[in-house]
Amino acid sequence: MNNDHSATVIRAYHHGRGGLADILEKAADNTGLSPAMMIRLLDSPTPSLLEKLFAAARRQRERHFGNRVFLYGFLYISTHCRNRCSFCFYRQTNTRAIRYRKSPVEIAESARQLARSGVHLIDLTAGEDPCFITDAEDDFASVIDAVRSIRADTNLPVMASVGVVPDTILDRLAAAGADWYACYQETHNRQLFDQLRVGQNFEARYRSKVAAKARGMLVEEGLLCGVGETSCDLVNSFDAMSRLGADQVRAMTFVPQAGTPMKDQPPSSSLRECITIALMRMVFPGLLIPASLDVDGLAGLRLRLDAGANVVTSLVPPGQGLAGVAQSDLDIEDGRRSMEGIAPTLRTCGLQPATIDQYRHWVAERKRCAYFHDRRVAEAC
Ligand code: SAM
Ligand code: MD0
Ligand code: SF4
What we know:
Blueprint: H1 3-14, H2 17-26, H3 35-43, H4 47-65, E1 68-78, H5 104-117, E2 121-126, H6 141-154, E3 158-161, H7 167-176, E4 180-182, H8 190-196, H9 202-214, E5 218-225, H10 231-244, E6 248-253, H11 271-283, E7 290-292, H12 293-296, H13 301-306, E8 311-315, H14 339-348, E9 352-353, H15 356-380
Parallel strand pairs: 1-2, 1-8, 1-9, 2-3, 3-4, 4-5, 5-6, 7-8
């Protein structure tokens, strides 16, 4: 941040709301919204400030991506999990969770259906399924085979979201052609992490993303909103995302789940998630930021796109017995989490699907920059 710019930020902060409104109106690039301003937007969001924030976030999206958005198909291939995350419907001990494990043939068929519908990426997601973790040579064989065959079959980029995996598995995922590794910290407040991801290791989870980057994969980091985090926690997470060098950053509103320790937590409004999306767009203008269909379904898409998101995630093919995560069945079997389902909303928002070549180009450019960035860092050491 140059001196003139920080002076503007400090002045605006001392001048109260008028100053912040002014900054948001003029925000051309990287804006210099101070942490204090971001916290104020999260804590006391007045309608007029929010309107300006969302408009500024959309301007940033437009500068970097025009009116094009990317679309991700979502396959929850196994809902079995050895973990007990307190927020998750699929935690090991939840007897209400619907459990399934899709076969290679079923996965291939669902991936083809998604590819035919025109998505730009297939997100292969699973719980930390004890069946994958065999401690034998063929550990995670079914996931790795699924990545390889989807790549060969659909020629689409693939994301793997299968929890924390050993470095040897990251090697094999990368070799099989996984372009992305997604693993969300949920929060970078360690005390809160321990409450949310019961019995899991904060560092190990974070390091798995660093290790995935070192293998040339792009990484997605993610936050939960409405789980007891402070606004300061959210803003601190932006720093952590930046240090990690995340390529895609998300926020999702916590949806209380039957049969879990957090089942009685009052559901929170998605506004905080949308403010977080908009702030992430201001802090990381050129990154990918999802509008997930997995929280409020199709009804919540417009709000998230209007806040500056540029990827629609959690498109799920109907008729395959597939589940969502935060919303296990909302909008799936009636086909609303589909390309046809979202098309009218995209039009209303003045957006259109990118071409697959545009998505491939973004991924390739981002990998190339990461490669040169890592070499510069390595040479400087
Ligand atoms: N099992 C893997 C893992 O935990 O990394 C991958 C899939 S996990 C089910 C995907 C993400 O869904 C979680 O990291 C969390 O951010 C989100 N999620 C899970 N339960 C949720 C809930 N009740 N409300 C909102 N988001 C939720
Ligand atoms: C989504 N339901 O995109 C998915 C999931 C896992 N990589 C993503 C949370 O919203
Ligand atoms: Fe398992 Fe992932 Fe759910 Fe945690 S969030 S219980 S690791 S499926």
